[in-house]
Q: What sequence folds into this?
């Protein structure tokens, strides 16, 4: 990567972060700025972008379970949205054609339908970045969004086969044999350990899957996704995902920069892309209505629809194929590239405030949902609980197990990762599924007997939001949370949290306390001996 790319991406990313907006907006701006300055993109930028997308799809696979794709809210939601959206948008575009607007005058129904289809996809890159930054990949709405994105990828593969005429070779049938190879892949991960070999194994598997599928005439990115799905049940799946996180994020910067290098727009093109961006309102409304009709709760439907309300980089692939086939003028490639960029910015800003938007319009949203929601969305009321641990990752689960040794089933755990909850429940743990940032949950949960709530969550924003919702729901007893740094600790204390545990500085104290017990001493007894 050339230094000028790094410099521009860093300055623009830092600039928007100072303004409290997602850095990806700055990376998009950096691409257009570099293009405006006359700096040409080399093939290495496209390589970086492709590497980032491949790693991202592999990481998505590590968090996905095939049975989720068979749920009606996933496959029916995806297909019905695509069909309705394509027809609605094609009709709107033909209306603009009748008005003789620039670039619309030459459209017929076929080309209008192609543009509508191209814009029906949501951006995997944008959605995943938003969910990761919000710590919501394992939540109910995060898992639904992931499932819809995967279904869209399957539709994309089918489209590319039909559009390009490149039918996979007969050897593609051998890909089903990967199911037989999975035990070997599991043993491979067991052998690599936890050091530098683990991320290297991840890179090998991600790009190995890409090359394998590409070699038999199937979209290579789908291979990375499938390999990830095959490994999703392995005990190291989460660790492998974390090991690849930084690699993926750095390479994806190349993707955001590459969008800006598509072409420089004219004012007329910018105007047309702004018009297309207004259709995002229709995209959100259509997703929301479809999801609620499929019996999702209003909040789940709202958050999923908001995260999916953007245009996809795949739209540019569809546009490029259409331009090569003579169906669209080359100006449409620029218009769609601008529309994709604008949609990223809009979704990033709106989703950052998604929970506040839901609280503001909660009554209206709940009025739309069906009375009989899906079984997965029913709340569970824990009984005879004195302490509730919210978040059962490494720190939360450690706290939960330690407290359980003293208080037994008077300690309950709650987590938004249904797979984790199912696994712990099978072991006899007193746990239940719930999204801590769900205001509806705290309103319906009876917390009168709960004396202490422990928030073991990955971000201080999550802890602050949950505390606010707990207090609004009438909870007045003790709340404790974890922090990594001193400034985070101070911010959490200011958010009406009673105690904040800094596990970087205080973990040593806990380690020393438990170690003293090995020789029959406590820290208090050791101090008394020292004094005498």
A:
């Amino acid at each position: 990567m050339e230094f000028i790319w790094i410099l521009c991406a860093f300055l623009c990313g830092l600039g928007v972060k100072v303004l409290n907006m997602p850095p990806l907006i700055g990376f998009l701006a950096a691409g257009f700025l570099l293009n405006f300055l006359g700096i040409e993109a080399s093939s290495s930028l496209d390589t970086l972008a492709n590497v980032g997308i491949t790693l991202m799809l592999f990481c998505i696979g590590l968090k996905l379970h095939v049975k989720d794709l068979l749920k009606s809210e996933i496959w029916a939601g995806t297909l019905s949205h695509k069909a309705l959206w394509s027809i609605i948008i094609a009709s709107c575009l033909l209306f603009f054609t009748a008005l003789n607007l620039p670039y619309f005058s030459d459209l017929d129904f076929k080309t209008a339908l192609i543009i509508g289809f191209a814009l029906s996809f949501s951006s995997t890159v944008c959605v995943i970045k938003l969910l990761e930054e919000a710590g919501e990949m394992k939540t109910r709405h995060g898992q639904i969004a992931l499932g819809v994105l995967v279904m869209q990828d399957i539709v994309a593969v089918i489209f590319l086969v039909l559009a390009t005429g490149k039918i996979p070779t007969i050897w593609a049938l051998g890909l089903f044999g990967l199911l037989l190879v999975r035990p070997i892949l599991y043993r491979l991960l067991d052998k690599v350990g936890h050091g530098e070999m683990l991320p290297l194994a991840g890179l090998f598997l991600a790009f190995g899957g890409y090359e394998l599928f590409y070699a038999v005439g199937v979209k290579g990115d789908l291979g990375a996704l499938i390999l990830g799905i095959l490994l999703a049940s392995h005990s190291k799946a989460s660790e492998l995902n974390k090991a690849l996180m930084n690699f993926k994020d750095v390479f994806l910067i190349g993707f955001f920069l590459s969008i800006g290098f598509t072409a420089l727009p004219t004012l007329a093109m910018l105007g047309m892309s702004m018009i297309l961006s207004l259709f995002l309102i229709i995209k959100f409304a259509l997703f929301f209505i479809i999801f609620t009709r499929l019996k999702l709760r209003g909040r789940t439907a709202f958050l999923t629809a908001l995260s999916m309300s953007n245009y996809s980089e795949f739209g540019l692939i569809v546009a490029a194929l259409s331009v090569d086939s003579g169906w669209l003028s080359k100006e449409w490639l620029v218009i769609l590239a601008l529309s994709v960029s604008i949609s990223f910015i809009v979704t990033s800003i709106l989703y950052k405030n998604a929970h506040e938007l839901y609280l503001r319009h909660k009554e209206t949203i709940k009025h739309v949902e069906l009375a009989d929601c899906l079984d997965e969305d029913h709340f569970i009321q824990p009984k005879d609980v004195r302490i509730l641990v919210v978040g059962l990752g490494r720190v939360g689960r450690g706290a939960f197990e330690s407290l359980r040794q003293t208080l037994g089933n008077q300690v309950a755990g709650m987590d938004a990762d249904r797979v984790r909850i199912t696994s712990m429940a099978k072991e006899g743990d007193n746990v239940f599924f719930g999204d801590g940032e769900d205001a509806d949950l705290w309103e319906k949960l009876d917390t009168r007997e709960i004396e202490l709530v422990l928030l073991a969550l990955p971000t201080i924003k999550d802890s602050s939001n949950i505390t606010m919702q707990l207090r609004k729901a009438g909870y007045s007893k003790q709340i404790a949370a974890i922090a990594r740094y001193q400034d985070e600790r101070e911010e959490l204390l200011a958010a009406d949290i009673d105690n904040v545990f800094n596990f970087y500085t205080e973990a040593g104290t806990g380690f020393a306390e438990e170690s003293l017990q090995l020789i029959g001493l406590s820290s208090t007894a050791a101090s008394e001996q020292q004094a005498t």
About this structure: Strands lie at 387-390, 411-415, 431-433, 452-455, 478-483, 499-502. DSSP finds 26 helices and six strands in the chain. Residues 379-531 form a domain with the Rossmann fold fold (CATH 3.40.50.720). The chain has a mean pLDDT of 84.
